[in-house]
Recover the amino acids of this structure.
């Protein structure tokens, strides 16, 4: 059975770690599912977006079809899931 | 020629020069990323660095040279599906038999037997039954001091903030605490016994390994029984609060500290930068400030930002401040020179 396929879009160092490719079609019903599938396809990404607990790292933002999301956010077929560093200036 | 690896808030800097200066920046790596700590593995000569990206989490990287291509190490992570994530890697130390140790937050120790390319979590500490009682210090639950015993690979001492001293004599299998004599002024005098001892730095005199020195969170201490018990030796210092400490390997009675004004005012006291030296195991302390800023200088020197090269008459000392300045001495602290100015805030200084 083929599940929901969405496109994870990466930038910067995450793109470089993922074979220097920004768009990745992966399968899953939630953001967490997609990101774990992406880690399996691109092992160099392991630990960079999701931490050991399977949570999106604190200073990374995920958007699903333009709306802010988390690892539990459901995705629909064809959604674009953007993974971006948060705007955390000031402290760093 | 001395090489310094300087971890900063904005990357790793390699500097080279002769005591007396000037030193040249020969490489920069991890531009813009916080580099907590970098060292050369004495067994391989390779550079091993800890980087804690605020976005992508803590990692360890290795390269042949500081300006070379760094490869990410494997295994720097906690068990999956637990309730904790790795927050930060604080320190890397070469042990006996070519082993590397890495310490981090939350109170974790890793070992590597392949020069830092891959790491394994030390489960005896991770699974320690007292872990639920461990309290973090202001910098987190950081395992910052890893102290091998020369020639005795079974023995190791650790220190954590704020979980005190940990000792093993059976190659990481079992642990005991070494906190007798420490006075935690930040707790009520009648506080119930606990492990909440905020050690800031821990060192062993290599020529007399049962002799250890400690910078505590308010207090400087010496142990003559390999870290089991401690005697206060801070009298004579302008303040017994500070972070880094270093020893002269040639002299088991020696220690150097950089006092900061107080817990609540973590700058060099009186606007004057001075390193303090003892050569009698803490009976007396001598200020060493010739050549260091003596007016309007309110510097903060962090835990890993002091190191040495050589020993005895050829002892060199180096330290960096969060102001971005690095200072050095080629004569065991008798006189000082400026190694670098205007670097990003300095987290760590290690000689190679």
């Amino acid at each position: 059975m083929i599940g929901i396929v969405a496109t994870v879009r990466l930038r910067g160092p995450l793109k470089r770690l993922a074979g220097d490719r920004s768009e990745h079609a992966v399968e899953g019903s939630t953001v967490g599912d997609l990101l774990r599938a992406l880690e399996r396809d691109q092992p160099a990404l392991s630990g960079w977006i999701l931490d050991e607990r399977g949570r999106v790292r604190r200073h990374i933002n995920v958007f699903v079809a333009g709306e802010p999301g988390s690892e539990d956010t459901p995705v629909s077929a064809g959604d674009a899931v953007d993974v971006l560093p948060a705007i955390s200036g000031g402290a760093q | 020629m001395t090489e310094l690896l300087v971890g900063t808030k904005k990357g790793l800097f390699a500097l080279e020069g002769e005591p007396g200066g000037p030193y040249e920046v020969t490489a920069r790596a991890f531009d813009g990323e916080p580099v907590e700590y970098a060292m050369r593995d004495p067994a391989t000569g390779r550079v091993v660095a800890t980087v804690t990206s605020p976005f992508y989490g803590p990692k360890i990287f290795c390269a042949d040279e500081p300006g070379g291509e760094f490869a990410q190490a494997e295994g720097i992570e906690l068990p999956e599906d637990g309730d904790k994530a790795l927050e930060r890697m604080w320190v890397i130390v070469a042990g006996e038999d070519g082993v590397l140790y890495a310490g981090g937050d939350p109170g974790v120790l890793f070992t590597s037997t392949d020069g830092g390319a891959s790491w394994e979590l030390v489960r005896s500490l991770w699974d320690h039954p007292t872990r639920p009682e461990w309290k973090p210090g202001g910098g987190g639950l950081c395992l910052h001091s890893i102290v091998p015993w020369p020639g005795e690979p079974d023995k190791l001492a650790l220190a954590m903030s704020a979980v005190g001293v940990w000792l093993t004599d059976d190659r990481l299998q079992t642990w005991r605490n070494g906190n007798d004599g420490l006075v935690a002024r930040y707790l009520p005098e009648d506080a119930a016994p606990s492990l909440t001892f905020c050690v800031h730095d821990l060192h062993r005199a290599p020529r007399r390994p049962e002799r250890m020195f400690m910078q505590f969170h308010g207090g400087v201490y010496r142990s003559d029984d390999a870290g089991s018990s401690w005697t206060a030796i801070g009298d004579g210092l302008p303040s017994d609060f500070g972070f880094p400490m270093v020893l002269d390997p040639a002299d088991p009675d020696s220690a150097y500290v950089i006092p900061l004004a107080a817990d609540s005012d973590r700058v060099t006291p009186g606007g004057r930068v001075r390193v303090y030296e003892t050569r009698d195991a803490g009976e007396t302390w001598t200020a060493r400030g010739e050549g260091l800023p003596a007016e309007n200088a309110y510097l903060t020197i962090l835990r890993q930002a002091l190191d040495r090269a050589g020993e005895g008459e050829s002892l060199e000392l180096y330290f960096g401040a969060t102001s971005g300045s690095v200072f050095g001495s080629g004569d065991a602290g008798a006189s000082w020179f400026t190694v670098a100015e205007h670097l990003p805030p300095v987290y760590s200084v290690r000689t190679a």
